[in-house]
Amino acid sequence: MLRGTAREAMAEFLGTFVLIMFGVGVNAQVVLSRQTAGDFLSINVAWGLAVTMGVYVAGGISGAHLNPAVTLALAVRRGFPWSKVLPYWTAQVAGAFVASAVVYFTYCEALTAFDAGVRQVAGPQGTAGIFATYPQSYLSTFPGGFLDQVVGTALLVGIIFALTDQRNTAPPAYLTPIVVGLLVVVIGATYGFNAGYAINPARDFGPRLFTFVGGWGAEVFRAGNGYWWVPIIAPCLGAVIGGFLYDLLIARHHIPAVATK
Length: 261
Prior knowledge:
The protein is an all-alpha fold. The protein has one domain: Glycerol uptake facilitator protein (Up-down Bundle). Helices cover 67% and strands 0% of the residues. The chain has helices at residues 4-32, 40-62, 68-77, 85-106, 108-115, 141-163, 176-191, 201-216, 219-226, 230-249. α3 packs antiparallel against α4 (85-106) and α6 (141-163) packs across α10 (230-249). The longest helix has 29 residues, at 4-32. The protein is globular and about 70 Å long. 49% of the residues are buried. The model has no long low-confidence stretch (mean pLDDT 96).
């Protein structure tokens, strides 16, 4: 029986696996069907529900971070043990990588029908964007893409802090995964255009690493003017900023509870 950090890391692995199975799965369905079986709205809704399901899977064991940026923010602002950060990160990336492989093999024949077996990153038959995020052609890597990820992740983590703050109007614990899923939907619906709203280093790097070894090659790291590092570094910074702002403007101003006899 797994105990302690190993048990929690396995929960992070499975929770992130579920998140990416549904999230990358909806991307595959929309792209490979040429938008006859979904659209931008269905992508946002499915990603939100994917987060909800992942949180329900892992929440009671690990807290269901499912996101290295969330883990980092909790370590910086909420006393999450630093000794657990690397195991959580490793499990999250591994879960995303394995889920990407499963989605790939599930949709392999559809991929081949779409691109005739020639795996391409961009262009009319480009499919790498099913797995990882890539910027629009107009978007600069820095500051444009970097700011995009900082803002999206700051919103994510700042509001997660609000939703889990028992001195604020936090929902009941059994409803929190649903509300966090809705949060992801609204971020995607409002900030998904620039670069696909990764807002999660594991969600982007695990699938990107899979495409690197799965047939798309090193172009997945060169594309978008070497954009690949942005969804790793910028969400971590954005998460810490979002947590800091919530604490600065809300948490530190809570009126102390009155002691009762």
